[in-house]
From TrEMBL:
Pfam families named in the record: ADH_N, ADH_zinc_N_2
Keyword annotations of the record: Oxidoreductase
Organism domain of life: Bacteria
SUPFAM superfamilies documented for this protein: GroES-like, NAD(P)-binding Rossmann-fold domains
The keyword Cell cycle appears for this protein: no
UniProt name for this protein: NADP-dependent oxidoreductase
Molecular function GO terms recorded: oxidoreductase activity; zinc ion binding
CDD domains found in the cross-reference section: MDR_like_2
Length: 320
């Protein structure tokens, strides 16, 4: 095949998994300050299938579109002015978000400082599962909540992509960690560092969680999880609500209870990625990949992800 083309998964219209189409298209070229990365693996996130369906970040995109933001690969070429990376460097990142990054392809280009060196102790498949989820957890717990040793942190959806990383990051910060998940995930979550796990299908979390300093709400309005979280948050504590931001109902309940709230939309952050890589290489952070798919099997991956029962992350192995 021509060195000027690449395999990619494109969509020309929003819809179900069937709109994901494998094509051979032109390979991008790096502009000054950018790097061209040969993608070895691409992580899959809920924002991917929501955008594909015309939700999520769909309104910010232009069709035809290559989905995907999580990348792990090797620098192929550097543009003028790049000083921090060189061809052959193994990198990972979440470039351009929320603009399109085009990760479901063999090559991507982005500013060099939106990447960081891949954790040395894991392969590209595991590294590709990290950026968006780990950065979300990091920016929520470190930058937004400023979690301190001894604080109590409640993580909703603790067994999911962001949740299982948030449990570990909160524990690394010295917090006492409570996670909600169905009972079959409890033993695993405790291995990751959760001090307590609550099966939300059996008990209302507000009846058993006690008082917490920080809630990381990864569910939002479903079953009023966001509003109900106010009941367990101490006065002056913080609810970080991610999927749907701070709704009017959450804001009103929080104001009445003297609880702070914050939305969060994850941003590219090479400094945080470097810190996260350090946690991985030290053994303090483990990323769980439930399954890796070939690039052309992306529709099957989306169908599985949309069921909402994934333990950790799903990944595309672009080298297959």
């Amino acid at each position: 095949m021509s060195e000027h083309t690449m395999r990619a998964i494109t969509i020309s219209g929003f819809g179900g998994p069937e709109v994901l189409t494998a094509q051979r298209i032109g390979r991008p070229e790096p502009l000054p300050t950018e790097v061209l990365v040969r993608v070895h693996a691409a992580g899959i996130n809920p924002v991917d299938w929501k955008t594909r369906a015309g939700q999520g970040m769909a309104g910010l995109q232009t069709l035809p579109l290559i989905l995907g933001w999580d990348v792990s690969g090797v620098v192929e070429e550097v543009g003028f002015g790049v000083t921090t990376l060189a061809p052959g460097d193994e990198v990972y990142g979440m470039p351009w978000f929320p603009r399109a990054a085009g990760a479901y392809a063999e090559f991507v280009t982005a500013p060099s400082r939106q990447f960081a060196r891949k954790p040395a102790s894991i392969g590209h498949t595991e590294a590709a599962a990290l950026p968006l989820a780990a950065l979300t957890a990091w920016q929520a717990l470190v930058d937004t909540a400023d979690v301190q040793p001894g604080q109590r942190v409640l993580v909703h959806a603790g067994a999911g992509g962001v949740g299982h990383l948030a449990v570990q990051i909160a524990k690394h910060l010295g917090a006492q960690v409570i996670a909600t998940a169905q009972e079959p995930r409890h033993a695993w979550l405790k291995e990751l560092g959760a001090d307590e796990a609550i099966d939300y299908t059996q008990r209302r979390f507000e009846e058993v969680a006690g008082e917490v300093d920080v809630v990381l709400d990864l569910i939002g309005g479903h079953d009023a999880t966001n509003v109900r979280s106010v009941a367990v948050t101490r006065r002056g504590g913080l609810v970080v609500s991610i999927p749907s931001g701070v709704s009017d109902e959450l804001a009103a309940a929080a104001a009445k209870a003297g609880v702070r709230t914050s939305p969060l939309l994850v941003e590219p952050d090479s400094a945080a990625l470097t810190a996260i890589a350090g946690l991985v290489d030290s053994g303090a952070l483990h990323v769980e990949v439930e399954r890796a798919f070939a690039l052309e099997d992306v529709a099957e991956a989306h169908r599985l992800g949309e069921k909402g029962r994934t333990r950790g992350k799903l990944v595309l192995d672009v080298t297959r």
